[in-house]
Queue: 3 jobs
Job 1
Amino acid sequence: MSNPEGEWLQQAQHGDDEAFTNLVETYQKPVYNLCYRMLGNPQEAEDAAQETFWRAYQAIRRYDTQRSFITWLLSIAAHYCIDQQRRRRLPTFTIDLLPEESAPDPAPDPEIVVSRSEEEKILHQILNNMNPQDRAAMIMRYWYDFSDEEIGKALNLSVSAVKSRMHRARHLVAERWKSVQPQSSNPERRNHESPAI
Amino acid sequence: MNHQPFENWIFDESNLTGEELHKLETHLDSCSDCQQLRQGLRSASALFQAAQMVPPVPGFTQRWQASLVERRLAHQRHQARILFLALAGTALLLLMLLALHILATSTPVQWMVAGFQSTFSLFSTWNRIQDFILELISFIPPIVPIAFWVLFTGGLSLLTLVWIISLWRISSQGASQK
């Protein structure tokens, strides 16, 4: 964690609202992204992200500074989203309501826009088929580069449980890929493909 | 065809030994199902890795600041409600314990007699107080009672008003305020 964040954290632990607001500003994107990937709906993701920060605000005095702040924050977000998923049981995905980027490309290529939208749909369809905890583990691995240990800490799981969930999730991803991939999509062309999955 | 352990290996390729990798490749050459599975996993993983983080709609922090005020207020109201319920519950419990104690230590006839005696004693005490006050007033010059009553009722009204305002503040804003 960089210095200003460390200072904000200490100040926030002493009841400084402005310092906590700075933390919200800094971490809004990763928290919102996790909520969005978990819930698949921009409005629900916004509510979940706001709720995450409120829960963090209430518990900030109990936060152990030895622990990574982002891991702690994402853990709160993941648990909240898992609870939401379990409550509603029937997930709804509204891909068309994707929020605009804060700094959009001034002249986006229509082909790229369509392709990204298509890819987002596929991602949602794949994630939608996983159980909430597996989904959280996958999101933490792919979007946040969390290790098995970090995922385990965030989701209160043992490392072996994380490995088992990741294995199951990957299996499902591979199976679902066959049924959801569009004709036009060809991820083989991507430069950043990694064979180490 | 038996796809194990190759199917499992496909999902754990990074942890395989050289010999296991060689066996997997040999199996993949002759098994189209496993080939498709690996291809699907690789393609999907590439898609996951290429996907960007989705940012919230601009103004998230401002919305947070606005919601913080509301949430804090709601939290304080919730605390006040809990405090009120706890106090009411304790009072009810004490009353029930008192009733149980009375039930265990006396008969209904005794309560009725005690009730009549208490009521009678209350009325007689009230009458004595009234007599005492009237006696007192008759010794004071006639202007004093008017001033006294004005001050007395004024003070009593002010105290009642302060009491109502305090109750309203506690119930709407909570017991503690930052």
Job 2
Amino acid sequence: MGRPQRPAKDALGTLDLLILSRLAQGAMHGFGIADYLHQVSDVLHVEEGSLYPALHRLESHGFVDSEWRTSENNRRARFYKLTPRGRKQVAVEISNWRRLVEAVNRVIDPVTP
Amino acid sequence: MVQQWWIDIRVRLAALFGRQKLHARTDEELQFHLMSLQQRLIDSGVPPAEARMQARRQFGNVALVRERTLDSWRYAFMETFVQDFRYSLRALRKRPGFAATAILTLAIAIGASTAIFSVFDALVLRPLPYRDPEQLVRITESYKQFDITGMQLAALELDDVRALARSFSHIAGIRRGDFALTARGAAEAVPGLRVSASIFPMLDVKPILGSPFRTEDEEYGKHRVVVISEGLWRRRFGADPNIVGTSIDINRESYRIAAVSRQFLDHIPTAWDLWVPLSFQPAEKAPTTRGNKGVDVVGRLKPGVTLAAATQDLAAVTSRLSALYPEAYSARVGFSLDAAALASMVTGNLRQALLFLLAAVGVLMLIACANVSNLLIARASARRKEMSIRAALGAARGRVVGQLMTESLVIAGIAGVLGVALASVFVKLFELHGPSGLVPVAGVGINAWVVAFAIGVSFVASIVFGLIPALTTTAGLNDVLRESARGATGGRRRFRQSMVALQVAASLVLLICAGLLTRSFLRVQQADPGFDASNVLTFELLLPVAHYGEPERRIAFYEAFQARLQAIPGVVSAAASDRIPFGPQGGQGLRVVGRPVDPDAPQPQVRPARILPGYFESLGMPLRRGRAFTSGDTVGTTPVAIIDEAAARRFFPDGEDPIGSQITGGEPGVTATIVGVVGAVKRRDPSTAPEMSVYHAATQRAGNAMTFTVKTATDPLATIPAIRHELAQLDPFLPLTRPVTMEQRVSDSLARQRLSMQLMVFFGLAALLLAATGLYGVLSYVVNQRRREVAIRVAVGAQPRQVIELVVAKQGLLPVALGIAAGLAAAMAAARLLAARLYEVSPIDPVVYASVTGLMVLTAITATVVPARRAATVSPVIALREE
């Protein structure tokens, strides 16, 4: 169509995938998700704020849903949780990942003694 | 568990309409994150000022993050709809022929539906343009013994109801009046009403100037005040701002102008020019006048009072009146007062006619949708490659369906806008050129409800015509590239054929209904009304009581005027009656003197008329027995009467000679001797049997109003100037009211029937045209799809005739035949609903069914000719090389 294409709706980045896998364990607010990301990876090593565009994009695509709740320190916080579509997507991404890992393993198996 | 579709809708709505909320939410979220970071740093011992700086550094550029976060929503909305929308517009622009056909087809159907709905909306859904219209009721009386319901009240009864009924906040009487304006300029007859002063608060009428008259003005003698209409004020008084308080002459009496008001009570449907107080002379309220009905009574229910409660209240009033005046309301007559919603009176029998028309435009809409559906399918097969490429590139089927549906929505949306414009043109044309006085067009127009209707219709239509093509074309998309599929799949071909069958069936139903109505209308038009309406001019004349109080003066005037009329060159004969056919009618109970009357049997009602000598001649009514009235029947001679054949048959069933018998009831308080029998005439409706009539001599007793009937040798309208001249010679202040030909009067009485017939014919022909286009489209498509097959057949020696049979007979005529069969069955069912509106035509009239079917077959054959010829002339060389 001659204009820059936006990424397809179902092509998720690493950040998206990590967010979804955190939410698979239960609802959480942005600050909590950032904490989790710090523990498991360094995707947020520069700016924590870049988490929010990703969260809102996931919500606008119907992967997550959000609502106001009270945080552990008694303040109003926006909590995110998976929608049915998000849940399905996590499963798909995980199996995709496993398949990729297996394929890579098959490739490197012969060279490792 | 929350459903995904609900989440998706919420997300769309939030992205579309919740911008402000989204901003606030984002701000609060980011703030929460910053504060939490800061708090953690402080808790770990960092000084507050330092903690704030560090938190910000860790978080990043807050403004930028906010911007990008909000952007991700815009993108969500953009991607789904705006993008599809842009793409649709581009796709439509690429095929202007397709777009124009689809849009025009739909626009005509939407325009027709919207126009009919706007009438329906004004007349049926919102018939009364007043505050709390459901509180407005009409109070009537009935005499069950005589099978009379919905009768007006007498003046005394209006007073009684006002005094005794408790359910109403206002009760007002209304009476039509005849008014001649004689001030400032030529004499002019204007339509007006006599109304109780309470009508103004009841309907919330606030005058533009001045204030309405009050209840005190209803007292006879004080009643010469008038509220004039805005129209009259502008037309006759040049919108004079100081008009209130001045006087005008009405019927030669001076009235003080109290106010200028907008129209009200125009649902009848007439636009009134003035309103004067409803007052009665003392004689009009004498105890014996309880039989003189003639006042329409409307009331407004008190807040919270139901119609049922009001009916009970009126029943109490009924029994009170029966107890007070046993001689007027004997138990035998079954007298009672009733209340009915005023709206139902306005809507009346229009509701059913309009519902029928709405159903008809619904069918037209369906045909249009089927047509566009077919166009879409044809186009979609051309776009299948494009679709399959999109599918191969990763677009989900739902996404492609969404894209196709957006295109349908765009088509329907443009058609909807055009349709509303068309509807307002239709309504305007109807207002300018349609029959007047048929429906109160003042309230008809394109309002918010009508636009909402059009939007709804367009939206539903887009789903109706778009969904099946979208689903069928996207089914099995992935196979397309693999096996360069050729030709329509069986499913789609069947769908297209069933669309053709549906169109044929639906248009057949419309055409048959139109045919039945047309045939019935022609029958009604040809029905013999019992008189000769050709070359007869009618006009009304009102003699003001102020100058023509004595009966002798009125009779002398009528006779002198009649003599002058007859002297006009070209006038064959001239006479007058106070009630002519196809004008307002009265009703009287008639009985023959000397015959026992069964008090329990219904009293036969006859239509009375006072006529001048020569009346039967002017209308070509045959005298069957005895004599007609002559100028020798005067005030001094024995009262005489003439009955018509219908009355003669009813009252003298055994072949007795009515002549010489005496009758009472036809003329109040008079016993008259029958001197003749005349042919019966239809007085209101050419499609019903004549009602019984009794005629009295206007030279013996005459009222103030007469309608003249002037039979001329040539064009009756050409004599109007001469008639005006003669009238001015006799009395320059008398206006000539409503000069119309008798033929026009008869024709006007059929205006509503004619209009619904014409609309049905229009819808039917439009449906036929659409069905023909649909058939043509399908066949052209089939021929195109099967060019290769046909080419091979031709190459191996098939004759053109065989090819035509193959393409046309199976693809074209089979669905037509199925459609005709289904259409005939459906038409028979639909026509049964129509039966009540048909005159001397059976709902399964074979002529109509046969000719409409013939027309359909002929149209179908015409629509197949071009594609068939194209199939027969396929050149095998060219067709096979194309692939």
Job 3
Amino acid sequence: MEKIPEFNKKPAATGGAGLSAMSFGTGGARTTLEVIVIALVAVFIVCGTELYLHLFKVPHYVFPKPSLIVSALFTEWPNIWPHFLITIYELLVGFAIGGSIGFVLAAVITQFPFVEKVVTPYILLLVTTPMLALVPLLILRFGFGSEPRIIAVALASGPMVMINSATGFRRVDLAKIALARSFGASTFQIFTKIRIPMAMPMIIVGLMVGSIFGLLTTVGAEMVGGAEGLGNRLTYYSALIRMPQFFAVILILAIIGISIYVFFFWFGKKWASWET
Amino acid sequence: MRLCGKMNFMAVDTKKSSLSAVKAQVANKMEVRGASKFYQTKSGNVHALDSVSLDVREGEFLCILGPSGCGKTTLLWSMAGLHDLSSGQITLGAETITRPNPQIAMIFQDANLLPWRNLQKNIELPFEIKRTKPDHARMKKLIDRVGLSGFESKFPRELSGGMQQRASIVRSLSVDPSVLLMDEPFGALDAFTRDEMNLLIQEIWMETGKTICFVTHSITEAIFLADRVAVMSARPGRIAEIYNVDIPRPRSVDIQTRPDFIERVLHVKSRIEHGGGKQAGLEIV
């Protein structure tokens, strides 16, 4: 005895944490005019800040001039570079571990509604608890190396990837699965040819949100303990009141964050633009 | 009558269609014997099919006609091997259908194209699943035949409903099945496109000699297309009556306005209402 199948059930995304409202359709395209205006606003803000700080003689340990920050970025770059590499390494390894576990877990768990219902509250707990809070505990166990930070990044990004991917995998379209089956598709083929492409938009959102959460956690964990990484540089420079260098590190972090966003946006355009 | 169609659809199929014409008309392609199906719902069991027995003859155009929820789709999906029966048996020749068979292709409601693939990739899907080399020459001919050439790189959202359904027909025919099961394929189209698609499917059927089993809830569509119309009654789904339609082919859309055609429609309609009591949902187009 089986349940009544809903032959024409339309897939609908429900729930999902993070930027689930984001779309990879044509909405993100910008006209030349918009790009020009965005650039003009940036120029205005930078020049305005420079002028303001100059006119009101704000000391550079309160707020350094943009020109000072940029020159500090270049002069201090050889000293920042090794820390930059460590941060990127921790982020990539932690995110790769957390992201792949999250993805596989989402793919498996959504096939078993009962298991999914039982596991979801715990995943939500992981999503909502700041993993930074665990870093001191992890340092006690794993020392001051990269390991505790990698674990924290994996714990922060994994659940994000999982909860969004699960939303994607939950979008069952029985007609499309029946279509594949009618041509003799195996369960594995249904998974690779129907379920994954169908879930792809949400998987990409999960990867994007997860990696940005990962970046936050990496930097935070480096600020909590250890002597390396960009987060550590932040505490180091602020302790020495070397504000231009401090802001130069912040600039680098902002660029990393934007690069992550741009990468996944491009990725989404390529693989999920069918969904508007 | 069958062979008076236009150009042959496919060189390969010429042999097939002349063969089926030579064969005795009574040969059965598929047989449904005592098919029953129960579904479980929160409010109890639903009796979707009640010992349905139906022959699908070799090379015929059979329409299954009935109101919404009468079990037509359940019957068709069972014939496609997409779900099992509670009791009874469906056979294709000597084979019992318990799972999808390469000889049977299904055409779904609303075309059912994959939105993340362009038209060409959608048509190649069956070959990918079967892990065989796509028959590009055959595909190209089929695409040309249904008037989709030049649209190969377009995505489903860029195509009209009629074009999407044409693509889905090409997808099903590309693997050269002998039976086409069509599940209210034109139900979501506007009346003009629907006429156009009805003509196209008639031409394709005449050119290829495929056996077609076509589910619809439109009496006009059923009588226009079919050699035989099997009328189903609802809850539990049964075959109430089977009508032969002897209108010569090719049939043009104009015949739908002829008095004798309308007479047939009214006849079927009155029999459905008379035989099965008051039944809502039977539409007259």
